[in-house]
Amino acid sequence: MTDEDATAVQAPKPFLEVRDLRIHFPTDDGLVRSVDGLSFSLERGRTLGIVGESGSGKSVTSLGLLGLHNRKNARVSGEIWLDGQEIVGSSADQVRRMRGRKMSMIFQDPLSSMHPFYTIGAQIIEAYRLHNDVSKQVARKHAIDMLDRVGIPQPDRRVDDYPHQFSGGMRQRAMIAMALSCDPELLIADEPTTALDVTVQAQILDLIRDLQQEFNSAVIIITHDLGVVAELSDDILVMYGGRCVEYGDVEEIFHSPEHPYTWGLLGSMPRLDRDRSERLLPIKGSPPSLINVPQGCAFSPRCAYAELNQGRSETERPELREISPGHRVACHLDREDRRRLWDEEVRPKL
Amino acid sequence: MVNFLIRRLLAAIALLIIVSMVTFAIFFLVPRLTGASSADLASRYVGKSAGPQAIHEVEIRLGLNRPVVVQYWNFVKGIIVGAHYDFGPSKVYCAPPCFGYSFINQTPVWPDLLDRLPVTLSLAAGAAVIWLVFGVTTGVISALKRGSAVDRASMGVALAGVSLPIFFTGLLSLAIFRDNLQWFPGAGTYVGFTQNPATWAANLVLPWVTLAFMQGALYARLTRAGMLETMGEDYIRTARAKGLPERVVITRHALRATLTPVLTIFGIDLGTLLGGAVLTEGTFSLPGLGKFAIDSINNNDLPRVLGVVMIGAFFIVLANLVVDILYAVIDPRVRLS
Amino acid sequence: MAAVGAALALALAACGGTGGSTSSSGGNGKFNEGITSVVNASTKTGGTLRIGNAVEWDSTDPADTYYGWSWDFIRLYGRALTMFKTVPGQAGLQLVPDLAQNLGEHSADFKTWTYKLKQGVKYEDGTPVRAQDVKYDVERTLDKNTFPDGPTYFGDFLDTKGYSSPYKDKTPGKLGLKAIETPDDNTIVFHLKKPFAGFDYFAMLPATIPVPQAKDTGTNYKLHPVSTGPYKFESYTPGKQLNMVRNTNWDPSTDPNRKQLPDRIQVQIGVNADDLDNRLIAGSADMDIQGLGLGAAAAAKVQSNANLKKNADSAATARLDYVAISSSVPPFDNVHCRKAVEYATDKQAMQTAYGGPLSGGDVATHLMMPLIPGNQDINPYPSGADNHGDVAKAKQELQACNKPNGFNTIISARTERPKEINAALALQQGLKKVGINAEIKKYPTGDYFKLYAGNPEYVKKNGLGLIMMSWGADWPEGFGYLQQIVDSRVIRSAGNTNLGVKDPAVDQLIDKATVTADTTARGALWAQIDAKVMDDAYIVPFLDEKHLLYRPPSAKNVYVNQGLNGYYDYAQLGVK
């Protein structure tokens, strides 16, 4: 180990710092590089939105942050520092103790993510008592409080209901109550509103925002829907093919995005002020296989502007470069070209 | 819940009545439809060289010349109020529940069924405990150590258990453990529990283990598959995300969900076994209901066959009922829908 | 199934080699020694005789049983008027008095038979046996409603005048049957409606075992028949177990034919047949009551192991496996077509189907076998050097039958009898060689005679030309063996065992035999009947059955009693 490496291993300042995270799965067909060199950081009280199509590696990332990958099937490398503790190199038991208390997660589909045989209350109490040495009565009271806090009516009664007795929105609230029951410092929400209808979506997002302010947690929202992060996030990380292709604060990403993939995502964002027929500009093609990632830019086969740089996109992988403070992009196109394309071609169509 | 119970109970009773009708029809109506006369049926109850006169007498005595509906009604009536039979020097009263009278063995069916029941009960209960414990444990371990040597070895053994017929493994176990090693010298003979509990158990070890080997193999595979599926469920990930230790995740969350379908099959298997473990009882010379059924079929002893079918159906229906209720207790989704 | 059986045989054979079962390979007998002499002769008393029974009794009641092994076993607790001599070899075919002082005295017309009972024979409770009790049991056998299983010889021959049951008998003592007289307590006189010279054989049947009327419980009597033999019932649970203990009121001085060696006799009922074979070989059982011989797996093991084989006997039986040819089904109405089948049959293949020479039997060329008195070895239809069938002769007969290219027909066999079905397949193959194409149809064993093969109307309607059949003598003598399968006058509308032998000449010969007192002359007549039926070609005999019996060294005083159709004699067994 060189001295340089030694300094790199020192605990960094930010609350959450991810450095060069790689999560690979060996399979019979080859190595699946679900996450391949991801770095970002996050402070308490702030919200990061990780956006990408399905298969881009965002969910794998979130499970990696919680240390939930089975070490037998997954090769995880890089560093994840959470409040001074490194997760990737820690023992399974150390990470387990952090889960639920230090960091917790709201899952995509609350019905399948809750155990069908146990009451909502029991599932909250189980988590709470695991991390807090309290009696059942106290834990139950806490569970009722939590349900109350996430806006479930008659929580003292509903605490004894089973997940299937809740409506979708209520279930997601309960899920949030469960995730927040131990006052986690990092909250990861994986597609928290996908299964919900639009009005409930808004309520849930409001709830997450309110609770974040109350608890001062760091929040990561994982979604394929830029609309969700627009409302909630401070920063946005756009993932494609297991890598970050663009990173910046929400203003930058929405107003001067520089990666063609981000443009595509913006184009496919449903917007209420547009007519349905012209509103969606889907990205052509399908996400890359994570087994045989193209040599060059992973997005180039789908990129409408790849030919503008004389084939460089096919041969060379673009580095993530800072183009303005806090705004990073991985694209071979000239900055001028990108700005021109955004202003003249892409934006008018949105 | 009470409503649910009443509904299930009524359905079970209705099912039993239907089974009795169908069985009765198979034995007494179908032969007629295929052209057998009531004298043909009666000829089964007389000896090798009886003349037509004797056959005719039997036909009348057994009421075989009556309409099948009347015969069925008499059968049902016998179950409820008993029946009188006129044989030999004295009249025979078949007390309720009178499940008919074996004219070949000259005994009422019900006491014989009761006499055979403890044997089958002993066999089924002992084997069930063994196969449930070993099958489920093996299945869980296999699933958790998927792909390991332990997994492959136990699934190999399980495949053998599922595919080897019991009359093979049974005879082999007798040859080895009784005849060669002489560990269980009494195996192949049934001694009642009340007679001598130690001998009862010692003599039943081989049939228990053999039957459990076959059934347990099935349960190991079933549990393993269920466990693998459950371990991939979202709520297991949630449980882990809460920070639960793996042991708790497996026992409280995964196993409970896995065992629900296993329990269903267990209930039905046990019910079926209580109706008679035909092959095991035959192989180990156990005078239980299964052996009784086979002997009765071989002897063309229809009243006994009818009785044993009814008792088998009763146990299966009962097991189903118990499973339904247990299921509702375990899985709240069933209770309310 | 076959593959599993073979694997099992191998596995069990392997087990046998690994010690532990050394007890089974002991003993000083030789192969087939039990046929000619008493093996492990012993007069020591004590011990428990452990008998296994793979099936159930039809009944233990002397009025209600028809299994050969049951007739053998019943002598342990019941004494009839006569019995077969309890010695090995041909002498065992001889009848000797049992309850009676002498064999029966008959009137000149063979219609009246008188027996005098021995003095001092007692029941297990010490009360003396009376001639009236013998009569009472015969009366009971007439009641086919209560006792359906026993043979009907008495009902057929006694002049019953409509007497149907002692239970409907209003006369005091219920001894109203006029055809039997009991002038005093020691004398019984039978009046027959037709002459019968072989009545001493009837007197050997369990029907003449005395039953005290006061102890008769009708259908429940089988649970505790009152013993006159050396053993009495201690406990009996049908389908499970029978335990017998010494009968202290049995007096050996009145009974030279039985022994009372073991203290107890224990019969476990419903033992798995293959397991019973293993128990015999392992020495944990002393006797298989059914006496049908070892199953395929065990037979293979015993035949290949000299140490085991010396404890085995390949015992001849009075059972013949044959193919009955239905003369009512064309073209078998033509004798030449029947003869074509006689010649074409591959008897060797059919013998193999039954287990080969040791556990199957000898190839049969005619109806009678050496066990039947008067037997003449004839071979009217030689089926080639290896008994594989004589194709040339068969084709000649087909020519004579105007079916030079063969014909189609149907073979019937019993579903539950794999050996019979395999034999039917071998028959089918053999017939194919001469152009006779036979289809095999399987029927349930229980209804084979009542509904199908024994039902002439069914046979004719469905064209069952060739019927697989197996017939065991009730006792080894012409009448007890042949009458039921060759006398055309016994053919009824259903339940027949004569499947089509209709020859007035045969019927006449039978009538003549039934009134011939001299056993040699009578035997010669039955041999004539045999030859005549063969000449008519109604029957294709293919196997004189032999059973590969196993006598564990633990069983003493073992021999095959020929009079009992080749069973070990259970009334002589010991275990010390």
TrEMBL record, chain A:
Domain ABC transporter: 18-266
GO biological process: peptide transport
Alphabetized InterPro entries for the sequence: AAA+_ATPase, ABC_Ni/Peptide_Import, ABC_transporter-like_ATP-bd, ABC_transporter-like_CS, Oligopep_ABC_C, P-loop_NTPase
Keyword Nucleotide-binding: yes
Assigned keywords, A-Z: ATP-binding, Cell membrane, Membrane, Nucleotide-binding, Transport
Membrane topology, record value: Peripheral membrane protein
CC annotations in GO: plasma membrane
Example of a GO MF term: ATP binding
Compartment(s): Cell membrane
Domain of life from the UniProt record: Bacteria
Cited PANTHER family: DIPEPTIDE TRANSPORT ATP-BINDING PROTEIN DPPD, OLIGOPEPTIDE TRANSPORT ATP-BINDING PROTEIN APPD
Family of this protein: Belongs to the ABC transporter superfamily.
Protein name: Dipeptide/oligopeptide/nickel ABC transporter ATP-binding protein
From TrEMBL, chain B:
GO molecular function: dipeptide transmembrane transporter activity
The ABC transmembrane type-1 domain, residue ranges: 117-327
InterPro entries (UniProt xref): BPD_transp_1_N (IPR045621), MetI-like (IPR000515), MetI-like_sf (IPR035906)
Domain of life: Bacteria
Keyword Chloroplast in record: no
Topology in membrane: Multi-pass membrane protein
Species annotation: Actinoallomurus iriomotensis
GO CC term (a single one): plasma membrane
Classification via Pfam families: BPD_transp_1 (PF00528), BPD_transp_1_N (PF19300)
Keywords annotated in UniProt: Cell membrane, Membrane, Transmembrane, Transmembrane helix, Transport
Family from the record: Belongs to the binding-protein-dependent transport system permease family.
Sequence intervals crossing the membrane: 9-30, 119-144, 156-177, 197-220, 257-279, 305-330
Protein name: ABC transporter permease
Cellular location(s): Cell membrane
Signal peptide, first to last residue: none
From TrEMBL, chain C:
KW Transmembrane (keyword) present: no
Annotated signal sequence range: 1-16
Keywords: Signal
Solute-binding protein family domain mapped to chain residues: 94-488
Cross-referenced SUPFAM superfamilies: Periplasmic binding protein-like II (SSF53850)
GO MF annotations, alphabetized: peptide transmembrane transporter activity
GO cellular component, one term: periplasmic space
GO biological process, one term: peptide transport
Entry annotated with the keyword Transmembrane: no
Pfam families (alphabetical): SBP_bac_5 (PF00496)
Designated name of the protein: Peptide ABC transporter substrate-binding protein
